[in-house]
């Protein structure tokens, strides 16, 4: 399927690895002019070179206002914005310090707010654009082991609900994609450590995790990053023009209900 993305300028934050990297890779393969973003010059350059297809890297910490401003200044026109940058960390609710709440909010929420504010007027003026927030099923079913993370992902869904109202009558769309547990590098590393601590193989730990922590999952496995990226790429394309203000689940059936 041709996603009709040739010559569209796409900015994907937090795209040096994991879901973000997979999204950038698919968009580049579909002909988009991709901007890869990460915090370090080295990792950003390396990721862009690995993706190829003319992808270029801009190093900037989008968890800060200064980093967002730097990224926008160097990016130029943005037709597609994928707000993917995010952090997670399991921690007991009563043990989460105020600094962590603020850090999670800055990275997972305010990065998307600042960047969308910057590119949104141009999209409306040109009467075409795509804004995607990579939220999570954790924004719907807040995980007890990381309430602060779930809070930020719920905020992503709320932002989409509101910003999309501002696109009425245009060809600009704003949507959220909600991955479920996904086997990104960060998750794989985390799972590996927990499996080792519990004297289990990764496969054994994965089976136990879904049986106990995510029993509602229908696929009973971690999704592949490519499975999420393929869905995101479609909603970045002109082919998805009738979908706006939506929370699109790629959660493996974790969320109960339709």
Which structural class do the helices and strands define?
A: alpha/beta
Proportion of strand residues: 5-15%
How many beta-strand segments?
7
Oligomer: single chain
DSSP helix fraction:
40-55%
Spatial order of strands in the largest sheet: 3-2-1-4-5-6-7
Give the overall shape, derived from the CA principal axes: globular
Secondary-structure element pattern, one letter each: EHEHEHEHEHEHHHE
Counting DSSP H or I runs of 4 or more residues, the number of helices is 8
Question: In whole angstroms, how far apart are the ends?
Answer: 27 Å
Overall residue-averaged pLDDT value: 95
Radius of gyration over C-alpha positions, nearest whole angstrom: 18 Å
Biggest beta sheet attributes: 7 strands, parallel
- Low-confidence blocks of residues: none
Quick recap:
With 258 residues, the protein is of the alpha/beta class. Helices cover 45% and strands 14% of the residues. A seven-stranded parallel β-sheet has the order 3-2-1-4-5-6-7, sandwiched between helices.
Description:
The chain has 258 residues and is an alpha/beta fold. Helix content is 45%, strand content 14%. It has eight helices and seven strands. The protein has a seven-stranded parallel β-sheet with strand order 3-2-1-4-5-6-7, sandwiched between helices. α1 (18-29) packs across α8 (225-235) and α4 packs parallel to α5. The relative contact order is 0.15.
């Amino acid at each position: 399927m041709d996603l009709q993305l040739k010559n569209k300028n796409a900015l994907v934050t937090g795209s040096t690895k994991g879901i973000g990297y997979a999204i950038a890779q698919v968009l580049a393969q579909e002909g988009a002019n991709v901007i890869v973003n990460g915090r370090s010059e080295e990792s950003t350059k390396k990721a862009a070179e690995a993706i190829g297809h003319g992808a270029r890297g801009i190093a900037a910490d989008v968890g800060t206002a200064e980093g967002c401003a730097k990224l926008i200044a160097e990016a130029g026109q943005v037709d597609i914005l994928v707000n993917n940058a995010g952090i997670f960390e399991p921690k007991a609710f009563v043990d989460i310090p105020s600094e962590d709440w603020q850090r999670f909010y800055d990275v997972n929420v305010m990065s998307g707010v600042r960047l969308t504010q910057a590119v949104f007027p141009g999209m409306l003026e040109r009467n075409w654009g795509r804004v995607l927030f990579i939220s999570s099923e954790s924004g719907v079913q807040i995980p007890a082991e990381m309430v602060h993370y779930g809070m930020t992902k719920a905020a992503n869904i709320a932002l989409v609900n509101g910003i999309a109202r501002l696109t009425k009558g245009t060809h600009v769309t704003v949507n959220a994609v909600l991955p479920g547990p996904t086997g990104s590098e960060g998750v794989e590393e985390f799972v590996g450590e927990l499996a080792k601590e519990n004297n289990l193989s990764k496969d054994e730990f994965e089976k136990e995790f879904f049986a106990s922590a995510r029993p509602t999952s229908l696929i009973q496995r971690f999704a592949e990053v490519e499975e999420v990226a393929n869905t995101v790429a479609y909603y970045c394309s002109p082919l998805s023009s009738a979908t706006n203000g939506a929370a699109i689940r790629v959660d493996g059936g974790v969320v109960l209900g339709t």
